[in-house]
Design a protein that fits this description.
nine-stranded mixed β-sheet; Ribosomal Protein S5, domain 2; binds magnesium ion; globular; 3 domains; seven-stranded mixed β-sheet; Rossmann fold; 21 strands; 11 helices; alpha/beta; binds thymidine-5'-diphosphate
């Protein structure tokens, strides 16, 4: 038997070293090195692959003939949108997300919904019966969708030419195991080897392959960042498991932009596409309560109206509490400091709680003004008019700053029947269309907003 070759791998970024290291020289994480037994293909009886191509010559780019782009259109519109307009043949797509978020459901659903396309779903994670149960919940019959319950890379590769699928889904890459590598499934060297094998298959046969990958607690695809470099597209499925909304984003796309998102709702019959998220997210606002207001935000390229809720109460202890759900706590502290310093509102002795309704996380700075309005409304205990909406960033000196894509935000508010939208006065000159059905309230300072709302 060939001598076993060992190496140490950083479980965070996949860096390889010949000896154990306390700190990874690549990603600077501590205590992440684990010894794995690797056995290169060249050490075994399998001959190494000959290079299949002749040496290429350099040619001028203008002389290369352009190809007409062909893309598969998935039955799922949101998925097409996030992929940049469809699935490119031969692409390797990494589909990441926390356990239980709905990765298997989404891709199984895609397989079942796709008529006329042979999708092979390879599962190393669940038994045939478990998958059948899920398929029954989704409730679609499709005799073209095939299931293979297998974890051995070599067995999969042997079967693939025979099955000849149009699209392959691997659930998950962490359960695949290649016999060329000694270490256990899910280790860095296994993941890397198996992913490389699927990449070769995808490129040689021009078949798109989805690799499902689990995410570790830091939010990166468990273990290897190396995977993210290898694949063509990285999709992330995220959301709060206690809520039903799920957001699909792409963080890398060799065939399109990465700023599109897909929104789904987890229901009893699988994932349902949400075409008008704003309508759902602000639909429960019937009564006028203080501390709640609506912000016009952008998720990817899509304008979306969300509800911001604040609760300001007298601090029971010396140090006031600050808590934020779905919003950056540091940014909330910053906005409170701005309110305190620039506009003379005494919030230092108050507890402030902030919540974005629907379990959505927002990073868009354009919701600053809505946060300020919600805090002020709760502090004054005066409800805001339900048909008011906000879209502006707040700077350190209390100035209301312009935000990008203001036209789309205004249009969305207009579409949902809002009467007034508060924007930065600096956004006025950038407006490309006139908005007749909504009143624009241009503001420059927090004081002006205060005067307008409570004056
Ligand atoms: P799953 O696809 O197994 O997650 P992942 O593959 O990312 O680990 O999704 C599991 C969750 O989805 C589980 O908690 C049950 C829920 N679910 C529904 O609410 N409705 C459904 O129709 C299905 C199939 C699952
Ligand atoms: Mg799963």
């Amino acid at each position: 038997m060939a001598k076993l070759k060992k190496a140490f791998f950083c479980q965070n970024c996949g860096h390889q070293a010949s000896k154990w290291l306390g700190q990874c020289p690549s990603c600077k994480e501590w205590n992440t090195f684990v010894e794995e037994i690797i056995q290169k293909a060249s050490d075994t009886s399998t001959p190494s692959r000959p290079s299949s191509k002749r040496a290429e010559k350099a040619i001028p780019i203008v002389d290369i003939e352009g190809q007409k782009e062909v893309r598969y259109q998935c039955p799922d519109k949101e998925l097409n949108r996030v992929l940049g307009g469809g699935l490119v043949p031969g692409s390797l797509v990494l589909f990441g997300g926390e356990p239980g978020i709905g990765k298997s459901t989404l891709l199984l659903q895609m397989a079942l919904q796709w008529t006329g396309i042979k999708v092979l779903y390879i599962s190393g994670e669940e038994s045939k019966h478990q998958i059948k149960m899920r398929a029954e919940r989704i409730g679609i019959d499709n005799d073209q969708s095939l299931l293979l319950s297998e974890t051995s890379m070599q067995n999969v590769m042997q079967q693939l030419p025979e099955i000849n699928p149009d699209i392959v889904v691997i659930d998950s890459i962490q359960t695949m195991h290649s016999s060329l590598i000694e270490s256990s499934a899910g280790s860095i060297s296994q993941i890397r080897e198996c992913a490389a094998e699927f990449m070769r298959f995808a490129k040689e046969t021009n078949t798109p392959v989805f690799l499902i990958g689990h995410i570790n607690k830091e939010g990166s695809i468990a273990g290897p960042k190396v995977l993210e470099h290898m694949v063509d597209v990285v999709l992330q499925f995220e959301g709060d498991r206690n809520y039903m909304y799920r957001i699909l984003r792409s963080s890398k796309n060799r065939f399109g932009a990465t700023n599109e998102i897909g929104i789904y709702e987890m229901q009893g019959k699988g994932l349902v596409q949400v075409e008008n998220p704003s309508e759902i997210l602000i639909s429960d606002r019937e009564e006028q309560l203080s501390g709640s207001c609506v912000a016009a935000t952008l998720e990817g390229m899509r304008p979306m109206l969300i509800e911001v809720q604040a609760l300001v109460s007298s601090a029971a202890y010396g140090t006031p509490q600050r808590s934020a759900t779905g919003f950056d706590l540091r940014r909330l502290n910053m906005l409170l400091a701005v309110l305190e310093k620039r506009s003379g509102f005494r919030l230092a002795a108050k507890d402030v709680f902030l919540n974005i309704a629907g379990g959505i996380k927002v990073e868009d700075p354009a919701i600053d003004l809505a946060v300020i309005a919600a805090v002020l409304s709760s502090n004054e205990d005066v409800p805001l008019k339900p048909k008011y909406c906000f879209a502006a960033e707040v700077g350190l000196s209390g100035e209301i700053r312009a935000v990008q894509k203001i036209d789309q935000r205004i249009q969305e508010a207009e579409k949902l029947g809002f009467e007034k939208i508060f924007i930065s006065k600096y956004n006025l000159k950038g407006l490309s269309s006139d908005h007749k059905r909504i009143e624009l309230v241009p503001v420059g300072k927090i004081e002006e907003v205060y005067a307008h709302l409570f004056g």
